[in-house]
Amino acid sequence: xxxxxxxxxxxxxxxxxxxxxxxxxxxxxxxxxxxxxxxxxxxxxxxxxxxxxxxxxxxxxxxxxxxxxxxxxxxxxxxxxxxxxxxxxxxxxxxxxxxxxxxxxxxxxxxxxxxxxxxxxxxxxxxxxxxxxxxxxxxxxxxxxxxxxxxxxxxxxxxxxxxxxxxxxxxxxxxxxxxxxxxxxxxxxxxxxxxxxxxxxxxxxxxxxxx
Length: 211
Prior knowledge:
Layout: H1 2-7, H2 12-22, H3 31-47, H4 53-71, H5 81-89, H6 93-98, H7 103-126, H8 131-140, H9 149-159, H10 165-171, H11 177-204
Helix pairs in contact: 2-3, 2-11, 3-4, 4-7, 7-8, 7-11
């Protein structure tokens, strides 16, 4: 049973590898490793129980929507974030804004959640505050702005019940605590790089507020 559980378990090493593969020499963000990194992050959220289910459920839906785009008839347009933006903007900004299932809108939702995860992991790595404080601060600096009050309220109450930093570092599945901290130090810049390239791309094309 242990091995079966481990197969679906979160591995920080896999997430690091995926985000490492994400960015090409031309600074394009490849969607396949991006989604693979997200699948790992979702496993991380799910391994923490129901606390984060309001974020992980949404992320699961968004990842599978993007997988459909990548695997569909227009799949070659969805190789990178840059090619996706070019392709979807070709129909014009108004047409893009009207679509609730566009790749751009879907990535934007994941992008906002990625910022929260980046800040949260950074806080876990530095270990300067309790995990509930780290998580709440990260949430307030990122996702909270996009959530209705009732969700924000529920989230901050849920964060109070988060396990200790040591428990989190154990969930990372990379061995002793020091190794987990070291690997977070390696992973966070890659996640940050993907985040900032996406942010710049979306800002450039005025896509940061897609409804």
